[in-house]
C-alpha cells in the first residue's frame, strides 16, 4: 500500500513538474534590414559631417554632399516609419503620455522595440537632424560656401540660419548624440540589453513574454519597397537642392 501510494505520489509530482509553466526565451526579428542600414548609414554620415564641418576648407564640398545624404536618410526614415517593418513604424513605438508615465513609474513593461524613452530620443534626434539639415541648406559663410537655397531666403534669415547651424544647432545635436550614446552604454553594461548587437543582426530575445510580440517583416518585397522609398527620397533631395535658378 505504501509503495503504491509512494509511486502514485511520484507520478503526480512528475506530472506537476512537466505541466508547470516555465520561462522560455524566444528570439524575434525586431529591426528589419532597411532600418538597420539606415541607422548605421546615419551614424557614419553624422561622423563625417562633424569631421568635415570642423576642418572646413577643401573638405566643405564633402560636408555638403554628406548633408544631402543625411537629408535623404531623414526623408527615408520618415516614410519608412509609415510603411516599414512593424517595429520601425511610428505607431508601434511612439508613446502616449499615459504609456510614458507608466513606463517611468515601472508599471509598463519595455516593448520588444524602442521603449518609450528611447522612442522620444529617436523622435528628438530626427527633429534636430532635420533642423540642422534645413538650416544648412540656407546658410552662407559669406566667404566661399553657401547653401543651395540661400539665394531664395532673405538675408536676415540666412544669417540666423548660419549662426544656428554653426553654433547652437551643432551643440544641441552633439549633446543629443552624447546622451544617446550614454543611454546605449547604460543599457549594454548595467541592464545587460545588447542594443548594439540587435541593431546589427536585427533580433531581440523576449523572455517569458506572452503572447510573443509580432516580428517585423523583412523579406524581398519589403527590401524592394525600401529601395523604392530610398530612391524617391534621393530624388526629392535632388529636386530641393536645385530649386534655386542657376547663376543666382
Keywords:
248 residues; mainly alpha; Fumarate Reductase Cytochrome B subunit; 10 helices; disordered N terminus
Q: Report the count of strand segments.
A: 2
Average pLDDT: 87
Distance between the termini: 104 Å
> Structural class per helix/strand content?
mainly alpha
- CATH level-two architecture: Up-down Bundle
Roughly what fraction of the amino acids lie in strands? under 5%
CATH class: Mainly Alpha
* Helical proportion, percent range: 55-70%
Compute the gyration radius: what is it?
25 Å
Fourth-level CATH superfamily: Transmembrane di-heme cytochromes, Chain C
Q: Total domains, how many? A: 1
Q: Strand sequence of the main sheet, in spatial order?
A: 1-2
CATH topology: Fumarate Reductase Cytochrome B subunit
Low-confidence parts lasting 5 or more residues at pLDDT below 50?
1-23
Shape: globular
Contiguous helical run count: 10
Topology as a string of helices (H) and strands (E): HEHHHHHHHHEH
Largest sheet: 2 strands, antiparallel
